[in-house]
User: Which sequence fits this backbone?
């Protein structure tokens, strides 16, 4: 009974993971698909023709998306990790104010923030550039990363770091060999989720 239940759970999880890819597969062969139709009204091979048409570079676009997604994931962890350590591991004045400003990019209505960022990027010459796309994704990713890692560090007491320092470890060694491995549950999940989101958003 337990084995059957475990298999059913795996099938359910696999189905939920695969479900978002069903519309992407249907769009590959959709000629016309309008709301609220559940299925495309017309079918077409236009997407496949575009994929194999000489001059188009789907592989380059895919590699570019993967590179940007990986870079954003790594940068968001690099920025969010110290923020999460400070917000989750210590208590200090005006902590709530800092959390508010950290979350501000995702609290502002998306249309207002997007228009503001777009106009700024046009003035700076960053519009339609790889670095501009990287920065746009980073702005919305860092708040989530910082809050996730804040919850991770809030559960830790810092006793292991103190023990490592007592045994002669430097601050960097304590961070590298104790803090980073202990917090990997949070930052690894964030790297994976960010990379997955980046891939899905560019599909």
Assistant:
């Amino acid at each position: 009974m337990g084995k059957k239940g475990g298999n059913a759970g795996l099938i359910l999880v696999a189905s939920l993971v695969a479900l978002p890819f069903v519309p992407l597969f249907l769009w590959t062969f959709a000629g016309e698909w309008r709301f609220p139709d559940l299925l495309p009204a017309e079918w077409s091979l236009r997407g496949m023709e575009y994929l194999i048409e000489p001059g188009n570079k789907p592989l380059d676009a895919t590699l570019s998306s993967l590179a940007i997604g990986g870079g954003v994931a790594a940068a968001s962890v690099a920025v969010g990790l110290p923020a999460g350590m400070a917000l989750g591991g210590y208590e200090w004045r005006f902590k709530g104010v800092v959390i508010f400003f950290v979350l501000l990019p995702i609290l502002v209505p998306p249309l207002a923030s997007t228009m503001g960022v777009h106009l700024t990027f046009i003035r700076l010459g960053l519009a339609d550039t790889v670095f501009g796309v990287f920065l746009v994704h980073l702005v919305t990713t860092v708040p989530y990363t910082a809050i996730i890692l804040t919850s991770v560090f809030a559960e830790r007491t810092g006793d292991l770091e103190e023990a490592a320092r007592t045994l002669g470890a430097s601050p960097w060694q304590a961070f590298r060999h104790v803090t980073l491995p202990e917090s990997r549950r949070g930052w690894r999940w964030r790297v994976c989720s960010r990379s997955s989101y980046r891939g899905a958003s560019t599909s």
